[in-house]
Amino acid sequence: MGFVQRIKKGGWPDLRRNRLYQEFLCSAESERENVGEELTDDIDEYGIRHPLLKPSTICFVHEKSLSAYNITQRGKSHIELGVRCQDRSGIRILSKKGIVISAIADGVGSCALSDIGADCAVNTSLDSLEAQLEQIEMPLTGNIMGKLLRIAMNEAYDSVKTKADELEVLMYALQSTLTIGVYDGDVLYVAHAGDDGVVALLQDGRYCMVTVRHKGDIESSVYPLQSKSTWQFGMTKNVVAYVMCTDGVLDGFVRNRYENERIYYPFIMSDFEGVLKSEIDVKNACEERSRILASEEYRNLVTDDLTYLAVKNNKHIEDMSKFPEFDKQKWEDDTVKYTNEREQALSSIF
């Protein structure tokens, strides 16, 4: 079985010995757009305050032609079950240096306070990298970024542990994934734990996933931030744009390892090819993506919490001589092929 330890519903209060909680400084932007509810002070029946969800952020750096936005929405299944959104995401831009820092996290579904853990992990990692990168001279190097990303991951880990200690619960109650990206307009540096993912477009027109899904022995389990031995660090050069998604969104357009993690490019094409020239353009792109994720058609297909984050160098997009070609017929033919292979494998067992 995977790393994740299961917490049975109704069992977690035995882990608590008091009702300590900490105020979270976070935006209270209208979550009702995502969940259809009035926004209230979110304190659970045990007196713990949960961080409110900040649905989206947009950024644009005119001098560098860098744009970024992130969206997090509560999933259909969590709305129906009355479960808090366990995803978190965030972006920081260092305008003078032309650096975008991005982070996403997905709380482990079986962990009662995983939304708190995801919030801690995202905000701590962003704070850590923003503070460190402000002191670093450009250009960035792989050696420096490897060190800074390891520091950020460890600080995120420690912040979740500290929060668990404050609440006097076991740390696994706050488990989440964490994926971090640092982009200087050309090179993308990544730190990663869990089954979320990053898909990047390169200057030669290729696109690929640059992270590995860290799932457990069964598909529904995951190796989260708390599993340090599975942490992944890497860098990818000549990056034009990238998207980061938690597993609900990612699994919808990037197939699993049995299908060679093939990518349904039309889903991300607008973020890899369209040129954004102003903050208004970024806002419109964010709103359009948000409408897609919130649509009834999409939510009937993907019921998990939804996080989608997009970053690109618009100058590089303008200079691209070749964009990816997607063969829809081949995609459909491969889908039939893989479906038949699965059915044959199952029939041979049963």
Question: What's the gist of this structure?
Answer:
This protein is α+β, with helices and mostly antiparallel strands and 350 residues long.
Write the layout of secondary structure elements.
Elements: H1 32-35, E1 56-61, E2 66-73, H2 76-81, E3 87-94, E4 99-106, H3 114-134, H4 142-167, E5 178-183, E6 188-193, E7 197-202, E8 207-209, E9 232-236, E10 239-245, H5 247-253, H6 269-273, H7 279-294, H8 296-301, E11 306-313, H9 314-319, H10 328-349
Antiparallel strand pairs: 1-2, 2-11, 3-4, 4-5, 5-6, 6-9, 7-8, 7-10, 10-11
Helix pairs in contact: 3-4
Model description:
By secondary structure, this protein is α+β, with helices and mostly antiparallel strands. The chain has a single domain, classed as PPM-type phosphatase domain (Phosphatase 2c, domain 1). The radius of gyration is 20 Å and the shape is globular. The strands form two sheets. It has a six-stranded antiparallel beta sheet with strand order 1-2-11-10-7-8. It has a five-stranded antiparallel beta sheet with strand order 3-4-5-6-9, with helices on one face. Mean pLDDT is 87; it is low at 1-40. It has ten helices and eleven strands. Strand 5 (178-183) and strand 6 (188-193) form a beta hairpin. 43% of the residues are buried.
